[in-house]
Each structure stands twice: as C-alpha cells, then as structure tokens.
Amino acid sequence: MNILRQENASLKVENEALKDSLYTAKFALSDLNTKVEDLEHEKASLTTTLKPYEARFKQQDPPIVVNNHTNDESPSSIAERDVGNCLSYTADETILIPDDQPDADNKVCPTMQIRSRSGKVKAKPKSQKDNEINQVEQQSSKQNSNAQRSDKSQSPKKKVIAVLGDSIIKNLQGWRLSDDNNHVVVKSFAGANCTDMEDYLKPVVRKEPENIILHVGTNDLNKSASPDQIAQGIINLGIQINQDSPQTSITISEILPRTDKSNLLIKASQVNDIVKKYGDQNKCGYINHKAINATCLSSKGLHLNKK
C-alpha cells in the first residue's frame, strides 16, 4: 500500500512538471506568433512604400534590343568577314555587319562590331541609350533602398516588457498583454527561488529590454530563510539587472497572498513590506496585489486560477 502511495505521489510530481513544461511551450509559441505578426505588418508597410517606385519604374522607356544574327550568315556578312580577314591587323578595325532582320520600316539596321588583331569580334560598345537606361535603373534601386531605410526609421519600435518569475505567473499570456506600443514576453520558471532566478535572468537581461517585471519569492517562503533574507534576495536580483542593463527599468511584483498555509501568508506580508520600502527609497517600481483574494486562487490556495 505504501508503495502505491509513493508511486502515486511520484506521478503527481511528474504530472505537475509536464504541465509546467506545456505552459512554457505555450508561452514560447505565443511569443513566436507575435513576432510573425510583427513581420507581416512590416512586410505590408514595405510593400505599400515600394508601390509608387514600382509604378514609376514601369513607366520608363523599355531598353532597345538589337539582334545580332551572327550565326545566320548572309552573303553580305560573309563578304564583310572576308574583307576583314584580308585587312592587315596593325590596329583594331571597325566593321559594319548588316543585320539580316529588318526593322519596323523594312530597313536593315547595321550593327557595329570591333574586330581585334586576332580576328575575334569584340562586344559592341554600349550606346548612349543603354547608359541612360542603366542610370535610371541604378537611381530607382537607390531610391527604393532609401525608402526602405526611411520607413524603418520612421516606424516606432515597440517597447519590450519581460515578465519573469516562478510558476505563479504561468497563466499569464504575453500576447494578450501586448499592444501597439508594448511587446510583452512572459517567462515562467517552475519551482524557481531567488537563487535560481540569478541564472534565469541572464539571457533575458542580455537582450536589454525596456522593462523587467520580477515576480519571485514564493518558493523561498517554505525554506528556513527569514523575511529579511528573502527580501534581500529579491532586492539583489534588481541590483543584478541594474548592473548588467542600466537602461532597463525594474518593477517588483509583490508575493501573492496564499491560503494554503497561514504562517506563510504572514511571512509573505513581511517580505512585501521590506521590498516595498526599498522600492520607495530607490525609485523602483512596485506592484501590489490588494485586489487579489481567495477567489482568485486555485483549489490549493497557491496559484492563480483562470479568473
């Protein structure tokens, strides 16, 4: 019987771990969906910006193509070739090779080629019309590039707000909290205490978000640490963020009230008082949860419910 109870307890622990992993995967997926939406908006903006330039470019005169039918040798072209071969190759010779393909006015359009000393035909020099077309293409390309850079610089960049903490925040959905000006990312680390968060913070802080909201300390209450020690652990996390990313503003979310253990509720209240005092003295943001009561908690009285 005891073995079954132990196995049951073990399965419950594994089940909780799987749930936490599933929630983490859902949050990551929501963040990716938000990024995809941002890219789609950027693509639409660029497409709208490029439409006038595309229409203007299409109105330009199309390039003139002159056909050289060197393989279909007419009698006149053979004669020209023979004359060219008989010339002394003391210098490059300019030879007119008529095109056997008449133009729109039924006139033969001669094509100029240059024969070198070796007898090989050099490519014809670019005409003034070709140069003008190339200049138009280069100018249009430069305008498009400048338009893209200008559009990116004018579009406002969303502020990144990272909400970091233990499993208490696992039901928060970053994409629901985001808006046109703020991109909210939620990172929940099940079972994390203040010491664990020192490592979990680093990858996020390295990206230098505009604001970090910390919610930690719940898993420290069960330990023998005093309220002063727990509060100092939370404060140290804020100091760590400030040192690694000075431009990031810090907001500390107080420990939620809990109904599972009355002694821990008192301890949490003492920790919150110490942290709030520190926040007031150091101009650090602080979020209280006076609006959260027992009706907002799960059946175990610890985590938030879907309310």
TrEMBL record:
Pfam families: Lipase_GDSL_2. Gene3D superfamilies: SGNH hydrolase. GO terms for molecular function: phosphatidylcholine lysophospholipase activity. Keywords: Coiled coil, Receptor. InterPro entries: Ester_Hydrolysis_Enzymes (IPR051532), SGNH_hydro (IPR013830), SGNH_hydro_sf (IPR036514). Residues 133-148 have a biased composition (Polar residues). It comes from the Eukaryota. Residues 97-158 are annotated as: Disordered. Residues 1-49 form a coiled coil. Residues 117-126 have a biased composition (Basic residues). This is Scavenger receptor cysteine-rich type 1 M130.
